[in-house]
Specification:
CATH class of the largest domain: Alpha Beta
CATH superfamily of the largest domain: Uncharacterised protein PF07075, DUF1343
CATH architecture of the largest domain: 3-Layer(aba) Sandwich
Largest sheet: 7 strands, mixed
Number of strands: 14
Radius of gyration: 21 Å
Number of domains: 2
Strand order of the largest sheet: 3-4-2-1-5-6-9
Length: 424
């Protein structure tokens, strides 16, 4: 069992204060920059407040918990350990997402169910034969809790697991409680495009922007209401979190939410460089800094860095690098490329940066660069959430022209999103 220390307290989710969104323009820019200051009073997570102020939500109940290695209170103790010894409730089942309960399984790897040897309760995989809790899995559950650290990008499967679990709870008629925690890349900046429903998949179920600028609790409210899940939803909100906070400002330790999101800086660039998964360029898996380094055998690092720096993208610079991936694309081969160095998180536009890297690679290396197919479909289209951006890049359209095409849908999403925000 995961072990550690304990956390603190919580607030009732119905206490939703819809704060002012801050300026979010179509390209994803915002006026506001993360302060980096130590929060005062200390930030308290949903799990902390559940067990100190809202225990009536689970008192006398058989509890199911959807979590992984990130489900910990402020002082580092795992939710499962705290719930298991909490008098007046019974922890009867655990549910694990992609990468497994301990977060060690590689991307896309089948995760098996098993019985926890310490707690002697089932750990049901939601990334194995099913990605949605079955009626049998919920047969002994009175209330379902969700506590997993998200990274702030649409194509991160934990929020799809959230949606599927909410659907299952709604069908079973049991309450669903989200224990909220920070968006590690902040809650102010939003970047498009918005997913088109025809491109719905497990890496993007609903029409939201790539960088959504929401917490998992806020996303749950959006999914439940705007997209018609209809679960008996409660969000146990944090206290002390502000939308402009970067991860350092939370005072929380960084626990890798998945094997390749190795530090907060990785999460910041991920909404852009993850798009390289849909190409024949390494997104840095198997390098010291996944998603912060990109490369291929046919790239000239000095040349690519020079051209990208000449583009003068806000809040970022590019440094030539080389690495030998230990996994994934070009495993065991030395590749050249660039490291993405964010110099100003408040100005940095991850999606624009990722698209600019891809468009530049296609222009500089037309004989080598290509978009790749997965199951007969272009995986880039699945990630970006539409079928027109890839052809536009291939036709040489500028990134500004490409992003402008989604302006109306992006503006609609900003207005929709505003209704479900919990924090100022």
């Amino acid at each position: 069992m995961l072990s550690g220390k304990t956390g603190l307290r919580l607030i009732s989710p119905a206490l939703a204060v819809v704060g002012l969104l801050g300026l979010a323009v179509f390209s994803g820019s915002s006026r506001e920059t993360a302060s980096g200051a130590t929060p005062s009073p200390p930030l308290l997570l949903g799990i902390d407040r559940l067990l100190t102020e809202e225990l009536d939500l689970v008192a006398g109940k058989r509890v199911g918990l959807i979590t992984n290695q990130t489900g910990r209170g402020r002082d580092g103790e795992h939710d499962a350990d705290r719930l298991a010894r909490q008098p007046g409730l019974r922890l009867v089942a655990l549910f694990s997402p992609e990468h497994g309960f301990r977060g060690t399984e590689p991307p896309g790897a089948y995760v098996a169910s098993y019985v926890d040897p310490v707690l002697r309760i089932p750990v049901y995989s939601l990334y194995g034969p099913t990605r949605k809790p079955t009626p049998a899995m919920l047969s002994n559950v009175d209330v379902l809790l969700f506590d997993i650290q998200d990274v702030g990008a649409r194509y991160y499967t934990y929020i799809s697991t959230l949606a599927y679990a909410m659907q299952a709870a709604a069908e079973k008629g049991i309450p669903f409680i989200v224990l909220d925690r920070p968006n590690p890349i902040g809650g102010v900046k939003v970047e498009g495009p918005v997913l088109e429903p025809a491109y719905s998949s497990f890496v993007g179920l609903y029409p939201i922007a790539v960088r959504h600028g929401m917490t998992v609790g806020e996303l749950a409210r959006l999914f439940n209401d705007a997209f018609g899940i209809g679960a008996k939803l409660t969000v146990v909100a944090m206290s002390g979190w502000r939308r402009e906070m970067d991860w350092k400002a939370t005072g929380l330790p960084w626990i890798k939410p998945s094997p390749n999101i190795v530090r907060p800086e990785t999460a910041l660039v991920y909404p852009g460089t993850c798009l390289l998964e849909g190409t024949n360029v390494s997104e840095g898996r198997g390098s010291p800094l996944p998603f912060e380094m990109i490369g291929a055998p046919w790239i000239e690092g000095e040349r690519l860095a020079r051209v990208l720096n000449e583009a003068a993208l806000p809040g970022v610079r590019f440094e030539p690098t080389s690495f030998v991936p230990t996994t994934s694309k070009f495993q065991g081969q030395r590749v050249e490329g660039v490291q993405i160095v964010v110099t100003d998180p408040g100005r940095f536009e991850a999606v624009r940066t990722g698209l600019t890297i891809i468009a530049t690679l296609r222009r500089l290396y037309p004989a080598d660069f290509r978009f790749t197919l997965s199951g007969g479909k272009y995986y880039f289209d699945t990630l970006i959430g539409n079928g027109w951006m890839r052809p536009a890049i291939e036709q040489g359209q500028s990134v500004d022209e490409i992003l402008a095409r989604d302006r109306a849908r992006f503006t609609e999403f900003l207005e929709l999103r505003r209704r479900y925000l919990l924090y100022e």
